[in-house]
Amino acid sequence: MKKTFLPVAALCLAIAFFTAVKAKSIKPASFATNSISVTAPVKEEKEETAAATAEAFAMNLYDSLKLDKMGLTKEAMLYAYLGHQNLVKKGQVNNSDILTICDFSQSSSRKRMYIVDVKNFKVLMNTYVAHGKNSGLTHVKSFSNVHESLQSSMGFYVTKQTYTGKHGLSLRLDGKDRGFNDNAEARAVVVHGADYIGEHRLGSAYMGRSFGCPAVPQAQSAKVINLIKDGTTLFIYYPSQKYLNGSNVLNG
């Protein structure tokens, strides 16, 4: 009995030892492999699904409100909503119901500012908006983020608080697109009213232009500002591939 017991005990101990070592050495590698092969695709699928859902919602909004008949391009609506959703997800927007789109692919003689209630599917306002003096005459040709350029800056902004300045009631803007409009506050790019743009200017050779501000008709400025103040998204759109590829808001 003694001769039989000792080898069996030794064998059992050896098996237990090597099994424990093998399990310890395999587990981390197996776990790492699972993390790479399963988690990453799931994350990518979720992002693709979220983008597809946002795109479908934007197109539904566009069609339901007949924004094409109001002159808004489909691309402007799509990019505006996608960027808006990204800002909302990052907690940078206080009021996610309101989205303002300035479609600078259109002439300044068109009502190219659209204030949309995306929650209740309503166009709250559709009015004129000026571009910068050095950005072009009737159509925008160039943009800048540089001080004293007197040009408009494309991209996403979040509205801030109001103040009373030389143009009366005005609204500060926080540019969220690095390299495209993040100098907006330092440049004093704000929403304000102006007499040089509006219905009464349609008989002129062209609408008046600003020093880079998205100025609106003086008679409607208070309504516009009060609708969009305090943390809503404002998007100045232009079909620039450089911007669409480089925007940290759209691609972040």
Name its key features.
single chain, 252 residues, alpha+beta, 8-stranded mixed β-sheet
Task: Describe this protein's structure.
- The chain has an eight-stranded mixed beta sheet.
- The model is unreliable at 1-38 (pLDDT under 50).
- The protein starts with a helix and ends with a helix.
- Helix content is 40%, strand content 19%.
- With 252 residues, the chain is of the alpha+beta class.
- It contains five helices and eight strands.
- It is globular and about 50 Å long.
Structural class: alpha+beta
Topology as H/E string?
HHEEEEEEEHEHH
Task: Report the span from N to C terminus.
Answer: 74 Å
Give the low-pLDDT segments. Answer: 1-38
Measured by DSSP, the beta-strand proportion falls in 15-25%
Based on CA inertia axes, which overall geometry fits? globular
Task: Compute the CA-based radius of gyration.
Answer: 28 Å
**Discrete helix count:** 5
Total number of strands: 8
Q: Order of strands across the biggest sheet?
A: 3-2-1-8-4-5-6-7
The major pleated sheet works out as: 8 strands, mixed
**Helicity, as a percent range:** 25-40%
Chain-averaged pLDDT: 87
